[in-house]
């Protein structure tokens, strides 16, 4: 059987149970030996809401601790200048070797926006995508797949998993408004957010 690795890139701002369920579901369905979480560094096209990349890294680290199939990499944090996914995948390939097939894990919004990504066709030529769709997202995901033609049909896969209406945007809003995020974010991450006062007072 072909050896496969999952790469889960994202801002994780903050990481939540939806991310963890996606990673575990993908690991099982696509027979991934492990999933490497790679928090973004200085992303050229996304607002990080004043949250430092080191804090986002530590939140992921806390969320995945204890899972032997999950790892974290700081390669995007260490890169200077704008960070593009295609550069990350090339770097991962150098780290793990050519014998592994790479699956990049992504949510609905990321795959829907894939036609606007830099070097998107090069990216799809060196890794497959595993997409977790949100309820009602079918049309925009199909448009993205169609944009890439046969390459999209061959390289973008849809994951059957528990559907959760949960997003980092909503969680940031809840924290800002002193609302509970218990059971939505791992306890260790909630503790870190409280201690560092993240998402409060302009953070």
Notes on the structure:
With 203 residues, the chain is α/β, with parallel strands linked by helices. Helix content is 43%, strand content 16%. The protein contains ten helices and six strands. The chain has a six-stranded parallel beta sheet, with helices on both faces. Strand 2, helix 2 and strand 3 form a beta-alpha-beta unit. The model has no long low-confidence stretch (mean pLDDT 90).
What is the total tally of β strands? 6
Instruction: Note the gap between the termini.
Output: 47 Å
Number of discrete helical segments: 10
Helix content: 40-55%
Which class do the helix and strand fractions yield? Answer: alpha/beta
The side-by-side strand order for the widest beta sheet comes to 3-2-1-4-5-6
SSE blueprint and pairings:
Blueprint: E1 3-10, H1 17-29, E2 35-39, H2 53-64, E3 70-72, H3 75-78, H4 85-96, E4 100-107, H5 108-112, H6 120-126, E5 128-132, H7 138-147, H8 150-155, E6 156-158, H9 168-176, H10 187-196
Helix pairs in contact: 2-10, 4-6
